[in-house]
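Students often ask why we bother encoding 3D structure as a string. The short answer is that it lets us treat folding as translation between two languages. Here is a chain of 333 residues written in the first language.
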Amino acid sequence: MIEVRNLVKKYGTHLAIDHLDFKIESGRIYGFLGPNGAGKSTTMNIMTGYLGATEGEVLIDGHDILKEPEEAKKHIGYLPEQPPLYMDMKVREYLDFAAELKGIDRQKREEQITEAEKMVRIEDVEHRLIRNLSKGYRQRVGLAQAVLGFPETIILDEPTVGLDPKQIIEIRSLIRGLAKRHTIILSSHILAEVREVCDYILIISRGRLVASDTPENLERMLGEHEQVEIETYAPPSEIRLILKNVPGIEKIETRAANDSTTSAVIKEKQGEDIRERVFRAFAGAGVPLLTLRATGTTLEDVFMELTQKDSVPEPLTDGNTKWEEAEDDAGSL
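And here it is in the second language, the structure alphabet:
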């Protein structure tokens, strides 16, 4: 487990991290989100011991990363946005060097390197120079370095940036595989990736935590209304007539989809699920539905809502189902 307590980082007069508090529990894939300049990389660099804090502490399985760095670092692996690779080394040679730096016992080193290579599927390139590898394979080598020693927690900073779609899919698959044995903290600007891979989200803005919950809960907390989108051959007047007596509908908006069909967005009342009622109403009227799908607040909507305020809001966390605007003196930079 990782505990970040009252963490502060100042660069001169600039407050990069503003009294940040959160916990990382074992057995989850965490998405660590925030706009550029929010303090994500600074926080991760402090958590991994690459950077000192102005105030506060980071405990890695009870060990303070600043006071007991060697012991604390045994419990974390880190892949920065730019993997710390030596291009003139061969893959196996580099991993042996990384294992030595991590203090892995020489008798266990060969076995651990082989296992790490298998986990990220780079056995077939272990004797190649790193500079001759594709970017996707270099990312895998970086992952292997982070996995060495098999720490409880692995921190990944933008692990898919600059990769092509095939490589992105492969790295995501590797992350899911690693999550079976490790707690993962994943920083990414690709919100769809975070939504797909992560089961818990931390969002920071201006150095402060503004949200901490599952993606589903965050979407539900900030979603005032769900809505149903339909497409049919019926004209707008007939759509409104069919839906006139369907309970749970707050508002209907129609528009021509093309020359022969009409689409409509049907806003539900709070707490209602009208999909089956809408389907039965059109079926009863003998009017086929070409499309019926539920839409609502997305993780992108949540991110924009939480990070584009003029002031930093109170954190939206487990059990906190109310969005509250921060006071004017909420500590904005």
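Translate back mentally: The chain has a mean pLDDT of 86. Keep this in mind for the problem set.
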